[in-house]
Task: structure prediction
Amino acid sequence: MLGRPEMAELMAKIERRQARVGVVGLGYVGLPLALTFGEAGFATLGVDVDARKIESLGRGESYLKTIESKRLLSANETRRFEFSSDLAHLAQADAILICVPTPLTEEREPDMRFIVSSSEAVARVLRPGQLVVLESSTWPGTTREVVKPILERTGLTAGVDFYLAFSPEREDPGNPSFETRTIPKIVGGYTPQCLAHAQKLYESALERVVPVSSLEVAELAKLQENIFRSVNIALVNELKKLCHRMGLDVFEVIDAAATKPFGFLPFYPGPGLGGHCIPIDPFYLTWKARQFDFATRFIELAGEINTSMPYYVVHRTLEAMSRRGRALKGANVLVVGLAYKKNIDDVRESPSFRIIELLEEEGALVSYHDPYVPKTHRMRHHDVKLTSLDLTPDLLETIDCAIICTDHDAIDYDLLVETLPLVVDTRNATRHVRGEKSNVVQA
Ligand SMILES: NC(=O)c1ccc[n+]([C@@H]2O[C@H](COP(=O)([O-])OP(=O)(O)OC[C@H]3O[C@@H](n4cnc5c(N)ncnc54)[C@H](O)[C@@H]3O)[C@@H](O)[C@H]2O)c1
Result:
């Protein structure tokens, strides 16, 4: 193939593990990705606009509960992992993987700020023969319609002067069964050569790569995975409400159904949706679908049901309190668990915050306990300022009701059920201890 010599050199560099891999955005996705490439023998350069993260990496201290500091220290020792808050250093990278946030705006539309600013930073250092891969979850068309034009403002052309691809991240922080290296990686290229180069790069560090025919297939596949979860979670959340009305235990129903060895996948209800992905990504597709005069009704309905869940939890609490002759107003309510799922410290979009706000609106005096979240910080939709309280006898004596929002393994549910007048359980965390106890209510 004729063309720029730099374009031909990249494949050989990847094969010899001499390609330098740059990762933009060292969060939940980018940090493990950078470490994985370093561990596979590539010189890796991680960049992030957050200088505190870079300083922390310099000290060999992990800022993510899911990444152990000793993994950072051994990466530092190999000298294969460098990091910087100066994005100009990306000029040294042969492949650049972009892992920046993709949140929603206040109007619940895709917030492209981070993709745009990181693409602009990449454009400033773009040179012939580089490979650029977007990894952030986003609407189908983003790489072609947003990233490519920014990169091409340099005068270089995608597919001709540099390679361009999209490869969605499937990180599941805290999942002991899967890590970046073992999770199959979907890759779509702007051209077949773009795909071949991105595929080769990922195959050099990860166990399995799944090539697809276009950027958009890769982009939409990621959204479909998260929409699938959102819709199924909404389905069981609705079923939970019905079960409560019918006096049935929804968890027992699901566990019974899950014994079917084919055609059924169990999903479990909770206090609402949380995390950076499931509550947000589906609306990236809704937004894009509108451009095609298409209404994504499943997504909207799932969103409606999942958003209603914190209200349902507070309503169940109010009901349970009043059945016991107590008002929520003035009651001491302990929210157990702020993280959006068990055994992690990620509180993004966590329904616990909405529950706290709703409880406070009802006049409850709210405190919380979460071994992973020592204190709260201001976030997009919430300004809850609280500090985690230890489950001491002195504290428990003052509590009128606990609401279990996250079923962290480290929490003593036995203690809560034995000592508190009322425990509202949204996660089935008390199943082994509640027995016939009348002070436990499912919500
Ligand atoms: N967290 C997950 O479990 C998960 C799973 C799958 C996919 N994703 C997707 O991966 C993407 C990244 O998510 P995350 O959880 O790692 O986010 P994160 O917020 O943990 O990390 C993103 C990092 O990017 C940095 N950043 C922002 N703008 C930048 C810029 N212009 N240049 C350099 N750095 C910049 C931020 O400082 C931050 O450290 C999102 O699109 C998300 O939807 C996340």
Q: What stands out?
A: Residues 215-246 form the longest helix (32 residues). The pocket of nicotinamide-adenine-dinucleotide is lined by residues 24-30, 47-50, 53, 87, 99-102, 114, 117-118, 121, 136-137, 169-171, 173, 276-277 (CB under 6 Å).
